Amino acid sequence: MPARILDGTALASQVREQVRAQVMELAAAGRPPRLAAMVVGSPPAAMLYANSQRTECERLGIGYELHQLRADARPADLIELIDRLNADPSVTGMMLLMPLPEGFDPHAMQYRIDPYKDVEGVNPANLGMCFYGQPIIAPCAALAAVEMIRISGVEIRGAEAVVVGQGPIVGRPITQFLLQQLATVTGCHIATRDLAAHTRRADILIVAVGRANLISAEHVKPGAVVIDVGVNRLRVPDRNGKRAAITVGDVDFEAVREVAGAITPVPGGVGPVTVAMLLRNTVEAARKQMVRAAGGP
pTM higher than 0.85, yes or no? Predict the structure, then answer.
């Protein structure tokens, strides 16, 4: 029997409705959320993302502004912008759109963002606090993956979990979140020998590598929950013999759904939930700043 498909679009819609209610509460308390995005130049993917963010924020009542520096801006110009937005109490959330031009250190720039305003949860301070289970703001994609596991209905406590991909923004935080919920976690990476020997033990398999169709049916334990965080663009022949671009994950979806118990599609799985988590983080950032201003932690 084919696996149950975990609908990320439906889950994202539920999260957005929760965010809408929280935005109204914050506005009534005099702390309306306001997200500031920063970009250097006009990278096409970043500008597309910015336009999507603006639309989502406007729908939910979140203020949105895009700060666009010239393509020939210097790192010092971006540092000045980040510091100015950090100091602006009306800005409750900040994020840096990628890619940055050559000569910019993205990690250094992300580290400069106030952890309380870091809505992506990528400031090293927030990533580091994941090890203690107490990030001020947690990474969006990792939160989204955990939410997808939750709606699958699988019991995390005591489960065998395998996380393929140990990047600092997705794989490692997910590993920490699962450990904190008492799963037994195996972390796999580029140097893992005999990947299938590890993944076939998994009750919960999370893949975040960025390699199309890395995981096939032979990698998956029958009945496992498979969470595909990968997003890859491939060009394949269409009906007219031309090459068309399609989006696929790290998991061979059609093959694996015949083995797994539940699976996330790409697109329509973790992706929309990640965007919803960004919006939820924007509200959470505003709330935590309000608590901090009142003398709380």
Answer: yes
